Amino acid sequence: MSVIAAKWTIAQYHQMISAGILEHRRVELLKGEIVEMSPEGEAHAYFSSEAGAYLIRLLGDRATIRSAKPITLPNNSEPEPDIAIVQPLGRTYLEHHPYPENIFWLIEYSDSTLIKDLETKTKIYAEVGIPEYWVVNLKNRQLVVFRDPQDGDYASKFTLTGGTVNPIAFPGVIISVSAIVSN
To answer: Strand runs (DSSP E) across 138-183, as ranges?
Structure first.
């Protein structure tokens, strides 16, 4: 016997949200499937908040930093990355969440969700052409950087434990890895 999961479109997902069906549930839509989100531990909440504040100070008005807010992707996905660095489009985001073309890069903080963030979300983000995706491995205090989306995966991947990194969208901006990983 094979089991087939029901797939949902973004429009159907939004209808469920509007109808209150998903109220009080921490979920996200990944490739048409509604997936429960793990609760945030103390380290996850602390480091993602501190990194968000750091990036706001560092990038100023060049980008908007959205923490734990949805992004809308054309592969029937509406994940809620821990930090999305997006174009500063102001009130446009009243009409829609950021689309791939509005996203500079994404950051996920991972402890219990490391496999999902390194495998499933990597493919979802690469498939829609998000140019850069960072995963912070909280267990090992490492920053895993994915770049150059090609054929549904990232062609470049490297891991940092210190030093600095320059995001593709802002090559002149120097980001301290410790400010993102271990602050």
So the answer is: 142-150, 153-160, 164-165, 175-176
From first to last of the 183 residues of the chain, give the pLDDT tens digit.
777 778 999 999 999 999 999 998 999 999 999 999 888 889 999 999 999 999 999 999 999 999 999 999 999 999 999 999 999 999 999 999 999 999 999 999 998 888 999 999 999 999 999 999 999 999 999 999 999 999 999 999 999 999 999 999 999 999 999 999 986
Close Cβ partners of 25 (under 8 Å, ≥ 6 residues apart): 36
Residue 88 phi/psi, 5-degree rounding, is -80, 80
Contact, 139 vs 114, CB < 8 A?
A: yes
Q: Which long-range contacts (CB under 8 A, 24 or more apart) does 88-94 make?
A: 88/61, 88/62, 88/63, 88/64, 89/64, 93/64
The SS3 call for residue 129 is: coil
Candidates 117, 149, 150, 151; CA nearest to 130 is: 149
pTM of structure: 0.94
- The residues facing 29 across adjacent strands are 34, 78
